[in-house]
Amino acid sequence: MTLTHPDIPTTGAPASYDERVVLIAHGSPDPRHGAGIGRLAERLQRLVGYDVTASFLEHDTPSAVEALASPDGGPGMAPGHTTVVPLLFTAGYHWRNDIPVLLAHDGRRVTLGAPPHPADFAGVVAGLAGPGCDDVVIASAGSTRPEIGPRFAALADALREPYGIGRVSIALSVSAITDHARPGSVVVPFLAADGFFGDRIRAAAASRDARTTDVVGDTTAFAETLAVALGRPSARPVTRASRAASRATMLTRPGRSPRR
Fold first, then answer.
1. 4 vs 204: CA distance, rounded Å
2. Helix, coil or strand: residue 4
3. Contact call for residues 176 and 190 (beta carbons, < 8 A)
4. How many domains does the chain fold into?
5. In this structure, what CATH number is given to the domain that contains residue 155?
6. For 215, which of 65, 83, 191, 258 could close a Cys bridge (C-beta 3.0–4.6 Å)?
7. Residue 136 falls within a domain, yes or no?
8. What is the pLDDT of residue 95?
9. What is the pTM of this model?
10. pLDDT of residue 105
11. Per-residue pLDDT tens for 171-204?
12. What is the domain extent for residue 158?
């Protein structure tokens, strides 16, 4: 995954061990979202060996402003460079407008990374779907940005080859889930963390007698893939051989009333 932003010069170098990473998620009034991003930060920190901080654009704490204003590094670590990783799969408005404004006033050595590309997580999705699965619906939030279609189309292509999943559908709204899912389908919530939108995905899948997996971001395999992108040598990419080990229990619980 490329760590770059079209309007901010970057070195292109992987994070080094005197650095820290700040994850920026959207945030949600649902506490599950903040808890899930916190778990991701903890997993990633164990993998990369330096400080990883979870932050949010709204609702949850710490805010992105608070996280960026805090001293660099963790306890006992020297100040260093900060790599900001937006957990915004659509590469939409927040990444192009809100986050650069935050960093412009930060005054520290900061590299803004591109949001994770969905195709980089094909192995994670395949692991969640499980061996032998031939009908996957990728469910995520939509965007008005034109780039979102090709980004998720690349994920669909990556699942067809080499993972051999014959039918891959992309659902970027709740209504699209009901259009694409059918009995026997496996719906994979392509979200950084669970929450109200995850409930809506599960409810839509259940209405079509489809199964739903855990959200992509709340897996060890997701953190491992991020660690590889950040240049941690000991981190391993998720491959066909490792996907069985990252399988999560399929969830069939009903959804709540629709809320974001």
1. 35
2. coil
3. no
4. 1
5. 3.40.50.1400
6. 191
7. yes
8. 60
9. 0.78
10. 54
11. 999 999 999 999 999 999 999 999 999 999 999 9
12. 118-215
